[in-house]
Amino acid sequence: MRVSTLSRPARTLGVGTLALSVGLGLLTGGLGTPQSASAAPPSSAVATTQVSSQTSVAFSQTGITVKAAASQAARSKAAANRVLTEAAKHKGKKYKFGAAGPKRFDCSGYTMYVYKKAAGKKLPHKAHLQQRYGKAVAKSNARPGDLIVIRKGTKGTHAGIYAGGGKMWASPRTGKTVTKQKIWSKNYVVRRLV
Known about the structure:
alpha+beta; thiol protease; 2 domains; two-stranded antiparallel ribbon; globular
């Protein structure tokens, strides 16, 4: 607690020292000039002390909040990197309808496998159902590692993993292999899982 006097610089006193000073009447006159036992600290000193301690608590809580947010962002980025690394490991594996890896994949089987393996996230084996998972994100805020679900109307028809630069990792269709491809439709949603 910070206490100010007119004749001396501010001092930091413990609660016990402050109580003893008030009891002896030493607080308002400085330590060399005893006051009557009934003397109390001026109200401005008390107000300053309360504002100062409240400000310290507010700064302390803000610091904790900023650190927690930075820590969460770092964990999210690390998880997204794991998803992208896992997605790239399967480059060249053949498409097979209904397959969910690790040797062959259809589109939603691929995203289901990658998110489970890299981040422990469970997704259903249907692009239409996958668009309901995670947090909705605006296309302009898409980050590498986000789930992309291309739609026909409102029905999800194809799924991939955003790789940045308008591209996604995906297992496209029969006769193709897992590759990084351009997001070829404007009708898609972005979901953040990590």
